[in-house]
Design brief:
It is a single chain. By secondary structure, the chain is mainly α. It has one domain (about 1-105). About 65% of the residues lie in helices and about 5% in strands. It is built from 7 helices and 2 strands; from the N terminus they run βαααααβαα. It has helices spanning about 10-20, 30-35, 45-60, 70-85, 90-100, 110-130, 135-150, and strands spanning about 5-10, 105. A two-stranded antiparallel ribbon has the order 1-2. Helix 5 packs across helix 6 (about 110-130). It is elongated and about 55 Å long. The relative contact order is 0.12. The model has no long low-confidence stretch (mean pLDDT about 95). Bound molecules: zinc ion (ZN). Zinc ion (ZN) binds near residues 62, 64, 67, 70 and 72.
Length: about 150
């Protein structure tokens, strides 16, 4: 799961502001809860505050009863990476984008291997779609493969 590899660049600052040790993964439930409710945003630099607000807005908003432990944040994050790729960014560009917009640090190599895994999954979906003669799904899957692989 690619979300597990994401860390906040300002992890240490967040720990200081909430007063206890936090797991290093940005999408760990304890971290998501801390940035949602334990950190006083007034004490953050405006740039960092905006990154956290974008992170909360884009990844942690859902109506599940057990949010943020429902899996939605991790799924939304994975979808974000695929969207950035389909919009033409390579793995380095995606890492830069996530760092700039959300203050997240990821290794480009981890993003690249995630994208390669995603293509393998899509190829498996394509096989099944062809075998079961689902033409619409075949076309959609081929399109996603083309955009992700290029
Ligand atoms: Zn959810």
């Amino acid at each position: 799961m690619i979300a597990r590899k994401a860390r906040f660049r300002h992890h240490k600052t967040f720990e200081r502001l909430c007063g206890y040790h936090l797991p290093s993964s940005a999408f760990h439930g304890a971290v998501v809860e801390a940035i949602n409710s334990k950190i006083n945003f007034e004490q953050l630099k405006p740039e960092v505050r905006n990154q956290i607000l974008f992170f909360i807005r884009d990844f942690t908003r859902c109506n599940c009863r057990d949010a943020p432990l429902c899996g939605c944040p991790e799924r939304k994050f994975a979808r974000k990476i695929l969207e950035l790729r389909e919009n033409g960014l390579d793995h380095r560009g995606i890492a830069d984008n996530l760092s700039h917009d959300y203050g997240l640090a990821l290794f480009p190599a981890d993003i690249l291997s995630y994208l390669e895994d995603a293509v393998h999954v899509l190829l498996a979906v394509l096989d099944i779609a062809r075998l079961s003669d689902q033409k619409n799904l075949v076309l959609k899957t081929e399109e996603h493969i083309k955009l992700t692989e290029r």
